[in-house]
Structure prediction request, 584 residues.
Amino acid sequence: VTRILVTGGSGFLGRHCLAALADAGELHAVSRHPGSEGATGVVRHAADLLDDGAIRSVIAKIRPTHLLHAAWEATPVSYASSLENLRWLKAGVTLLHAFGEAGGNRFLGVGTSAEYAPSGTPCVEDETHIRPSTVYGHAKAAMHQAVQGAARHHGFSAAWARVFLPYGPGDPPQRLVPSLIAAFRAGQRLPMSDGGQIRDFVYAPDAGAMLAALLLSDAAGAFNIGSGAAMPLRQAVEAIAASVGGEGLAEFGALPRRPGEPQMLAADMTRTFAVPGMPRPGAFARRLREML
Amino acid sequence: VTRILVTGGSGFLGRHCLAALADAGELHAVSRHPGSEGATGVVRHAADLLDDGAIRSVIAKIRPTHLLHAAWEATPVSYASSLENLRWLKAGVTLLHAFGEAGGNRFLGVGTSAEYAPSGTPCVEDETHIRPSTVYGHAKAAMHQAVQGAARHHGFSAAWARVFLPYGPGDPPQRLVPSLIAAFRAGQRLPMSDGGQIRDFVYAPDAGAMLAALLLSDAAGAFNIGSGAAMPLRQAVEAIAASVGGEGLAEFGALPRRPGEPQMLAADMTRTFAVPGMPRPGAFARRLREML
Prediction:
């Protein structure tokens, strides 16, 4: 029997993972305040994963064969430098141990493109250096090492998904894509940097489908979750503007870039696309039309 | 005022760190069962660092300005695959947080050469990939990421020391150098592999002195702690045999190498030796004579 547990199932990515896993087996979700988001037929459990005892008892109760760990600190903006990241690291280690003890056999952890060092070429999982520049990136990179250590000890199969820039339904309004949509719809002129930065946006339902496929595979190691079609920020902003009738409202070059901002953050998708059954993400402009 | 706290001060490396720090300021050590090892003038505290409350109270009491974190699981042989490594990771995160909250300003963590991917050349801190092959290596690599995250959040200065193969006074008898000395002294013939593996041995009192210098510097980042004079294992074994009259007792080539054993594990010491005041480690054969 396949008993899947998703943590962070009421979060932005987690709910898309739940939707993609609807027919994959007995499906459980745990979060602090379980809502009705995501797929029907999900058994929902309320637990604060930052409480070691709560982690242990929820795992002992469910005894998942498959665990997709998407829960993490995600407060827009402040999450990057928050100490909560280190609390989630500790909670993650407890979770790994409980999962191993309960006989779990497949773990997928959600990491981030922010683990990578800045690079002038698309990031390749085992080649690009890991050199985060945020507390968030360090804590996720630490969690990846802990996942490998626990998998080695307990003998379960483990993968680690480095998610690039997700957008789509459920995206918190303060984040880039929803805030651009809202501003352009309101007819606001927006001063921006030059927009030459290369970024890889991935539609959250596509990311959820890729994470689900990765969880259900036995592919081990780190995997990029992006579109593989990175573009200049300016191109993404213009597509968003065009989709809501806001052409010309973005004022490129009116602001300097933020200090330390990498020129390129792009996913090499070779390794991920080689996983059997891996779905392909849709093009940015098309997904935008579907969403709006 | 400089208030230094050393964790793991009754351990093999920790006691040499304490000795090297004797004149550096107000010196504290914490361990589960504090003994009388190491320098005089050390204020000893008993606490189990695997207990979150104990960590917080010892840090709140001492309020160290400098923290050298050498405590870790170290049971010979079994430490490499033990789940205790992940408990020490969690304890380390708690320690980092308590240190930052208490206003600490300089942290040095003890890592390991086992964090590195196998490489045909000496390991360079920010160039050689981090790709451990043991639970121990993964947990230490995770701790390094946690150190960087906590340092970034709290604003303290942090360094991470990757120690190669320490030997010397206090080395547990089951480990390589003491067990060779004991066997050769007893006149035992020892079947061994071919001995062509390149390894970097560092005399523990030299490693302690280098760690002390690193703690008292403000150099940030990862630093190798080795001799910089790696040699074939066969050469080290022959030097040990010669030093105790056991010439010819080692039978090289009688055993195969262990599967997965790296051909080379050597430290590039450029970065460490560039730290102001960094002492230079002594040559293997000379340190061996001094020790015996």
Remarks:
- The two ends of chain B are 39 Å apart (CA to CA).
- The first strand of chain B starts at residue 3 and ends at 7.
